[in-house]
TrEMBL record:
It comes from Populus alba x Populus x berolinensis. It comes from the Eukaryota. Pfam families: SET. This is SET domain-containing protein. InterPro entries: SET_dom (IPR001214), SET_dom_sf (IPR046341). Residues 172-260 form the SET domain. The lineage of its organism: Eukaryota, Viridiplantae, Streptophyta, Embryophyta, Tracheophyta.
Length: 667
């Protein structure tokens, strides 16, 4: 099945469904004690139950508690993880007695494909038995459990459930929605996204902007009402709702698609994840493009043989093949790249490097999350980015060679690493601020950690924006990353450590209301305010490209003043001369000279850690750095808010969050 735009074109940044009520839903086990099991909102602290107590279902109000379905659900809490089992149990009232094993409530069960997998089939059979045992306590006389139907219900959940994210971006549960939502197919270049409404008062008026504007393929409608199909109703108004919104212009009759997986991954990983969960191979325009798109070229083709390494591998094969002189990159590309044996060897190195680098990043990340040592995490990941996996030896068919594998700056593992480093440096700063506060010392080092955290957040935003320029479906990721960068920069500018500098003779930044910080060079603040007030009509009038262009022009001058300050002392970040210009990529992605970039502008880190005022002055630690950092943070946050308004709407929780971060005082 598929959903298509109805009888009218849909512009960018418009709601294309009303708030859709779920057919079934369930909190993840780890959130049962802190969130309402009906609306998924956070419980008041007085309602919390300690985690070591018996598992139970908690509610925020009598209205939500009325959605408690059956005592059988409580029995499933003793078989963790139970969220998919509880969601399947809640789905059964919609499926009896006329459902088939192929579709329930119009949703594909995918049972045949799922049961063909040994591991998944074992899980489904175990889950169906657990549901059957839980239901026996409340079954009426002569009522029986249909094992096949129970398996089919669980398969519907595994195939159609989506992760529900709270306002902080955490996955707190799952929900299964009817065909209005679930029939929207996946694409790696989607034209729509979706957002959740998590609130005790989540009944949303069905205004003209939120009417259903999409149809199942092959059906007709009168004023948005389907003629040929009747969709099942949701769970009596309870549960987290979902709204679908356009992120591109969608023509009348065009298929509407959303993303089922992370779009900042290379094609092979995307396809692997989609097959593992949904049992289909994606054949969207992005996946079948030949040659691959620029984005997938960066994320996939260069994911293991990194730039300088490409040249090293070529030289290695020159020697192995008996060439009397080293060949340059162009000569090797012309005369040998077409060789099947060379392609085979390069593919071997690429696959091995990908596996080893992925394992290393996962290992360091798991250790960071388990042990809580951000300093060790930062050192290991930055060493990996700078030096690669120097200790690894890869065996080749004709002998062994010590090779150095490094990540390209736009490789998907590098982007993930920037995210982790921004978080780890932020944690280090927080820990150091607490330590210095307790001992009454100055917090220069803590400010340094905040500075580098902000730099990584900014690098992540500019890197994904570069990819977004080639793949506009990355709009949601770009909005989130620009917002995060803005928050990090504002947190740095507002840090109390600057107040300590003020005591040493440095002036303190005057944090006046946002309205006092309007930029004379761009109209970003005005665009943000108009977006809040009038929504998508004004987005079109303002011109998305025009707003983006003026934003980049404006922050260009700010970055010239701020970027050098942010990256001082960090060996990896210093090779990025201009994080928005991308001149650091070199003339060709294939021959980017990592070592040459690292050899320039070495900074003595000991100078930064000098806690004397003279050491700070030597690094240009003046009030102007703080003012420029603040202004850059405001620009990034406003632009992130402008993009978030397109993705989530002017009244979403995300826009409220951005207004709060800006200390926005609207009319």
């Amino acid at each position: 099945m598929e959903m298509r735009a109805g009888e009218e074109d849909i512009e960018i940044g418009e709601d294309i469904t009303p708030s859709v009520i779920p057919l079934s839903y369930a909190l993840h086990d780890s959130f049962l004690h802190s969130h309402c099991s009906s609306c998924f909102s956070r419980l008041p602290s007085t309602n919390f139950t300690q985690h070591h107590h018996a598992p139970t279902l908690l509610y925020c109000s009598s209205i939500c508690s009325s959605s408690h379905f059956s005592p059988a659900e409580l029995n499933l809490l003793h078989s963790p993880p139970s969220s998919d089992l509880r969601a399947a149990l809640r789905l059964l009232p919609h499926s009896l007695p006329s459902s088939s094993i192929n579709r329930i409530c119009g949703l594909l069960t995918n049972r045949e494909k799922l049961m063909a997998d040994e591991e998944i089939s074992a899980h489904v059979r175990y889950g169906a038995k657990a549901i059957a045992a839980a239901r026996r306590m409340e079954m009426v006389e002569n009522e029986k459990n249909d094992a096949v139907l129970l398996e089919a219900a669980l398969c519907v959940v595994l195939t159609n459930a989506v992760e529900v994210h709270d306002n902080e971006g955490r996955s707190i549960g799952i929900a299964v929605y009817g065909p209005n939502f679930s029939w929207i197919n996946h694409s790696c270049s989607p034209n729509a996204c979706y957002r959740f409404i998590i609130s005790p008062d989540n009944v949303m008026p069905f205004s003209e902007e939120s009417r259903l504007r999409i149809l199942p393929a092959g059906t007709k409608s009168d004023n948005g009402v389907h003629n040929n199909i009747e969709f099942p109703k949701g769970c009596s108004g309870s549960g987290p709702r979902v709204i679908v919104r356009s992120i591109k212009r969608i023509k009348r009759g065009e298929e509407v698609t959303v993303a089922y997986t992370d779009l900042l991954q290379p094609k092979e990983i995307r396809r692997s994840e989609l097959w593992g969960k949904y049992r289909f191979i994606c054949c969207c325009t992005r996946c079948i493009a030949s040659p691959p798109s620029h984005v997938d070229h960066v994320l996939q083709r260069l994911e293991s043989v990194k730039c300088v390494l490409v040249y090293e591998v070529f030289q290695f094969f020159c020697k192995q093949k008996g060439f009397f002189r080293p060949m340059n990159y162009e000569e090797i590309s012309a005369s040998n790249l077409a060789s099947s044996s060379l392609n085979s060897e390069l593919s071997f190195y690429r696959d091995e490097a990908t596996r080893k680098l992925t394992d290393y990043v996962d290992e360091v990340t798991d250790e960071y999350l388990a042990v809580g040592d951000p300093e060790s995490c930062c050192k290991k990941l930055e060493n990996m980015l700078i030096t690669g996996l120097l200790d690894e030896q890869l065996e080749v068919r004709e002998g062994k060679s010590q090779l150095n594998f490094r990540l390209h700056p736009l490789h998907h593992l590098a982007l993930n690493t920037y995210t982790i480093l921004a978080s780890a440096y932020k944690i280090r700063a927080s820990d150091l601020f607490c330590l210095h506060s307790e001992v009454g010392g100055l917090s220069w080092e803590a400010l340094s950690m905040s500075r580098i955290s902000a730099a990584y957040s900014l690098l992540l935003a500019t890197s994904t924006y570069h990819l977004f320029c080639f793949e506009s479906s990355l709009l949601v990721s770009v909005a989130n990353f620009w917002t995060s960068a803005g928050e990090s920069l504002l947190a740095l500018a507002k840090s109390s450590a600057w107040d300590s500098l003020g005591k040493c003779g440095f002036p303190v930044l005057n944090r006046s209301p946002l309205a006092m910080h309007k930029c004379s060079k761009c109209s970003l603040l005005e665009s943000f305010e108009v977006n809040l007030s009038f929504g998508q009509d004004q987005i079109r009038k303002a011109g998305f490209d025009s707003v983006s262009s003026s934003f980049l022009d404006c922050i260009g001058s700010l970055l010239q003043e701020v970027w050098g300050f942010l990256i001082q002392g960090d060996r990896y970040l210093k090779m990025f001369k201009d994080p928005t210009g991308f001149s650091w990529l070199g003339k060709s992605l294939d021959i980017w000279d990592f070592d040459a970039e690292l050899s320039h502008n070495d900074v003595d880190f000991n100078c930064w850690t000098n806690k004397s005022v003279s050491g700070i002055e030597a690094l240009g630690y003046t009030d102007q750095w703080r003012i420029n950092t603040f202004q850059l943070g405001v620009h990034c946050l406003l632009y992130g808010g402008f993009l978030a308004g397109i993705c989530y709407g002017p009244h979403s929780h995300w826009m409220s969050h951005i207004r709060g971060a800006l200390n926005y005082e609207g009319k």
